[in-house]
Amino acid sequence: MSAPALSRHLRVLRAGGLVQAEAGGSDARLRLYTLRQEPFAALQAWLDQVQAFWAEQLGSFKDHVERSR
């Protein structure tokens, strides 16, 4: 991946709040990127809700099919 392409990807991730950048010391061109935990915790909470919804729906469907036999 080229440096400009990598820079664009990191800029999008930073704008989306998924990563944060810190200055890389004395060289102004360097930045240290780290993942932010909060957005991923929110994503996990949403995925847990989706999983619970579909587990309930599929369980009900299974019960219906078994009763219909």
Describe this structure in a few short sentences.
This is DNA-binding transcriptional ArsR family regulator. With 69 residues, this protein is of the alpha+beta class.
The average pLDDT value, as a whole number, equals: 94
Low-confidence stretches: none
Instruction: Kindly report how far apart the N and C termini lie.
Output: 56 Å
Structural class: alpha+beta
Percent of residues in beta strands: 5-15%
Give the overall shape.
rod-shaped
Helix content: 55-70%
**Count of beta strands:** 2
Widest β-sheet, arrangement of strands: 1-2
Radius of gyration: 22 Å
Task: Summarize the main sheet.
Answer: 2 strands, antiparallel
Query: What's the structural domain tally?
Result: 2
The helix-strand sequence is HEEH
- How many helices does DSSP assign? 2
Structure commentary:
By secondary structure, the chain is α+β, with helices and mostly antiparallel strands. The protein has 2 domains: 1-35, no CATH class; 37-69. It contains 2 helices and 2 strands; from the N terminus they run H-E-E-H. The chain has helices at residues 3-15, 37-68, and strands at 19-23, 31-35. The protein has a two-stranded antiparallel sheet with strand order 1-2. The longest helix is centred in the C-terminal third of the chain and has 32 residues, at 37-68. The radius of gyration is 22 Å and the shape is rod-shaped. The mean pLDDT is 94. One of its GO terms (molecular function) is DNA binding. InterPro entries: WH-like_DNA-bd_sf (IPR036388), WH_DNA-bd_sf (IPR036390).
